[in-house]
Amino acid sequence: MLSFRNTRGPGRGAAGKVVPFLVAGLLAQPLLHPAAAQAASAAELRRDATAALNKLYASTPKAKELATIAKGILVFPSVVKAGFLVGGLFGEGVLFKGGKAVAYYNTVAASYGLQAGMQKYGYAMFFMKDEALQYLDKSDGWELGTGPSIVVLDQGAAGGLSTSTAREDIYAFIFSQKGLMAGLGLQGSKITKVEK
């Protein structure tokens, strides 16, 4: 987690006020401008997404059970969220259908307000209905929180779920959380199809 102390003393004046904002701007730059972030190749992304999905299945058997009836699974193996007053997140993902990679996406979001820190995590979205998958395919940038319904599950909530009770459009699992930052969630993130 990032923290800043007020080190302003005699002779430091405006510089003591400006430095934290410059540091924040540098940290948030790759997140607010995804093209500036280093993009993974299609092969690297497939490898990382497959490894993340297998790790999720090992830790959360219900996710593996859902995969047997899902129409598609969109996996973002590594999403980075960072900020200080102004923040953002960026990650790249792979859509799997029938175990094969069929498309690539990125996820981005910007946020403003009282926030400081950095966090890395991954998430997988299990599309349970053809209509939800079609919505993803036809959207020119899908902002989560609009369109198909999404239920974010943790291990406790997933315990009562089965292939016969899965009725929502999409189920999402967040995994591999590292770092501290308030407000981890998917709503407000924008998912856009990209070429690899």
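Next protein, fold it too.
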Amino acid sequence: MTGLASPSQLRMSFLRYALVTVPAVVLLGTLSGALSGAGFDNGWFAALDKPANLPPGWAFGAAWTVLYVLLGLSFAMVLHARGARGRERALILLGLLFLLALAWPPVFFAFHKAAPALSIVAAMIVCTVAGIFILWRIRIVAALLLFPWLGWLMFAATLNFQIVSLNPDAETLAPAGASTDIAL
């Protein structure tokens, strides 16, 4: 076969990538949160003083699902851009961004390390900005898909910083309901 691929063949090629990357990113992201005990039901999180601008719990699940779908699509676009200059660098950067996103819930919710979690958010912001610049040269739409990530991360950094400020003893705070008292 010596001919060029038709537009419909190219679309199908992208869809094949997206059918793998989007569910994989959403599933792994969801598992990271679920296995970490992320959410308002977490006893340690419930015991924290929270900022006034904290959205309701359902907003986090909805936002992260949308963000993971966007990241999965961005991955698929870069994977589909065979031969593009900087493609490998972009894939490494997107992979690092995703690994940091997977690391945040256990650091914050399972290990109760709010300040190190803030550092992870800062690293995610740096990766997202760098990703936008690199992806812009490969696939503009893939770069544009990272702008909602950047906006959410800025908001998440603000919330994380406020939680650190309101709870300087967050690491030593016992989960709600936990007690060392012996019942008689």
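About the second fold: The chain has seven helices and no strands.
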